Amino acid sequence: MMDALAPVTFQVNITPGDLGYAIPIVEHQIAQVGRFCSEILISVDHRPGREPDLSGARDWIDSVRSRHPQARFAPVDYSPATVAAVSRYFLDRGTIPPRCRRGGYFSYFEGIFQARNDHVFHVDCDIMLGGSAQPWLGEAVRLLEGNPDVFSVSPLPGPPAPGLKLKRQVAPALSSPRGAYRFDGFTTRLFLLNKRRFSGSAKLRARREPLRQQIRALVEGYSRLVLPEELIGDYMRMHGLHRVDFAGEVPGLWSLHPPFRNAEFLRRIPEILGAVESGNLPAGQLGDYDINESLVDWSDCYRDLKNNRWWRRYLRKGFRS
User: 210 vs 26, which has greater pLDDT?
Assistant: First the structure.
């Protein structure tokens, strides 16, 4: 057990539009991990040029600050000076765009940049975390510092299955730490890294999407750069780096992610959080990092996804205009 707070910034991205459903999840994240970190940074994303409207969440924000003195809420800073500074810190050339086709872009990098600690544990505001961050955080920092080829670490993906096996992912298992797997790619959903890695000359190389995705980006008004996880994945491959997902010492730490947000999921968030925190989950969910249909009925989401291709949205928009 760690007596002192870990020298880690627990950083969460949230938007005013997320507040309607995400407050109990962020509370859960802070209880599971953030309270053990020396800084909690809630980065509030918004449209550049507009201040985020947090009027409906003031009581919650005040409550978090009173219970966790290391917590701060900070609007993402889109000022030209900060955009330039963040871009210089991470990119070899050009400017990090505000958004991409999946949502935030600049906010991921700005949150890492603004963290007061070198070690930053980022989670999206819908990530659920089971187990315990003690002593996982200490193991994670030691793993990063003792292995120069490890770019980032993350909790075990999915609630532990027998033998800590993964249900959908294929990755080499490592002998230590407990329940560890090595991956060549990166995910922006959750990660713990040392931001000092970017303070030198080795930067992310800006790269555009393939032509088809560039056309889509132009149609929908987003950046033509590849997604942040692809930029970072390029960097990892270029420098022979990988990420390690691991459970760690018992009880370990693991993550769970909702692939959709339908009415059933939103209604059952408190129940699902209770199941995650207690570890009382159906057998079909074990080893799976995405909430699957053993826990939530996603059939309406799959049906909508099938009928909602981007080019169909564009055609409908064109016919209406």
Answer: 26
Region 52-78 average pLDDT: 95
Q: Which two tokens stand for residue 305?
A: 């996804």
Gap between the Cα atoms of 186 and 219, Å rounded: 27
Domain 6-320 classified CATH 3.90.550.10?
yes
Report the pLDDT value the prediction gives residue 109, as an integer from 0 to 100: 97
- pTM value is 0.91
* C-alpha dist (Å) from residue 317 to 223, 231, 311, 314, 321: 20, 31, 10, 5, 6
Domain positions in the chain: 6-320
Contact 156, 178 (CB under 8 A): no
Do residues 150 and 242 touch, judged by C-beta distance below 8 A? yes
255, 166 contact by CB (below 8 A):
no
Calpha distance 160→222 (Å, rounded): 38
